[in-house]
Amino acid sequence: MECLLFIRDNPHPDPTKKFTFGPVVMRMLHSLNMSHEAINIAHNFETADIFDEASSPIILCDLLFNNGMYNEVLRVVQRKKAMNEKRDMKTTHLLNCITFATCYKLNTQDHLSFALEIWNKSVKEHQLSEAFNFLCMNAVNLDQAKIALDILPANDSNFAEFVLSDCGKYAEATQVIICVLRIE
Length: 184
Hints:
By secondary structure, the protein is mostly helical. It has one domain (2-144): Serine Threonine Protein Phosphatase 5, Tetratricopeptide repeat (Alpha Horseshoe), CATH 1.25.40. It has helices at 2-9, 22-31, 35-43, 55-66, 70-86, 93-106, 109-121, 129-141, 145-151, 157-166, 170-183.
């Protein structure tokens, strides 16, 4: 902790040579699998500004997710989301993907609602296909396949037949499978 306070209090005098230590520290803690220490440092009022850029929360969330600390992942996401809203920014596609995976693991209506809230504010074209899949599977698991169908990109044939059949749209699901077979 003392090193982090030293880094924070003694920035390089030349702004062009300023180094961002947050991701380096988070990667070190991730490599050492020190999830509790990472949370404490990231949420510590004295050192929180060191981890203020985009990649530190993603690394922290990945560490927490790998350790099954799903509620902690969502706390980090909520903090980052609140910070971004103050700056009129969106959450990154990588953070969204981890968030949707976490909500999928927790698999409750409240978590689906939280994921959909983030989804509705995100730039859809920049999302990873894994993010679509986690969000859609969460909806399907909660018997809300219609939501999954609305979210699913039109060109995602790998997942569309499953969602269509779950919605009872067997003819459309069959058409998707036929189109895929013709392409291959």
